[in-house]
Amino acid sequence: MHLGLDLSASMLERAVPVLTQLRATWCLVPHRSEEDLGRAAYAVATQGILPISRWLCTIDDNVIDFVRFVRYLRAMNLPAYVQIFNEPSSPHEWRDNLPKPRAFVARWCEHAARIADEGGFPGLQVLHVEELEAVLRELKALGAKQVIERMWFCPHPYGSNHPPDYPYDDLNQRDHPGATLNDDPDTVLQFLEFAPVFERELGFVPPFIAGECGWQYGNANDPRYPKIDDVHHARYHAALFEMLRTQRLANGAPLPDFVYAFCPWILYGPEADAWLSSATGVRQKTLDAIQALPPFVRGEPVGEPAAPPPPAPPPPRFPLRHYLLFGARHSAQWHHLVLTRHYLARFNVAFGFSAQEAKRARCVTIVGDTSQVSLEDEAALKRAGIRVERWLGDLNALEIILQDRLAHNDEFGS
Fold this sequence. Notes:
By secondary structure, this protein is α/β, with parallel strands linked by helices.
């Protein structure tokens, strides 16, 4: 899903349970600051949902630094999927409302190289094939192999008020025999027109994660088809996610392996087309339809039990080097996580909230008093042969400890 634009703690407390009910696995986070990204990424990641960073900046801003978001996500032990800019052909994405194609290409390639060098995954978002060709040719001219190997593509396939199999549906084929998506891009299958460009220019197709897509509530652009009301909104979005389950596109063709995720616009907010809209109400039929889809694992045959996996080799006793244990999850731990983010990034330390998971590490640092991690859990870690330290005190004391550790480049106490 695409989250709403309000990433306050109170809004996330209401929205994230809806994501878990929908069994979401990817979530585009449209943030304005590092703090907003951290708060939202923490909220969804603790529910097993992978966040995607989408910084709400204009393309011609004077000071732009995407690398900080890579570091932030990696410090949280998350893969850093970072979308760089948005819809470069749209005037509202530029401070002066004047799209500049050559400037976009140069800026995207520059920031993508920095993100890739930092271990992140740079995301490319364009609306037109010509824009995609320009970026890919520049990457080849620059010899940006690492960017090419780590990039992903972020299409925006909206369906207008067309059915999921448009333009291959019976009505449109009667009106326009032989029509394809190249004749009318107002279809959720529109992302397919970009794949041949990648194949031609790079020799392969990178992952596609649709950062915006779906059907906007109330859309009635094509008079041949019904308006997107609650019934059609629910039916069409269910069909969108069924493509992932059945591994078939809505027109019956096989679903390409490069399709990773669909993130429909937009979960909540004042927008009339939000699924939880303060203007038009809740798309309850849609929520019910998505929840009713059978659970599935991508790649498993539909309706058949999965083959048992081969026996795995025994895991190493201590697969993790160092683990920061925050203990019980509650609002105070968010402040602890924010304070420790630079320490986590500096020393590449894993973190989490489970004493059981901490037993996989050679060293464990406990953050907080015994109300967070009990003496019994601490003793169990030590009995397992793990080196354990505990940071006690309020937020001010924790900040002093962290400043001292960073100043002396000291990861673990004696």
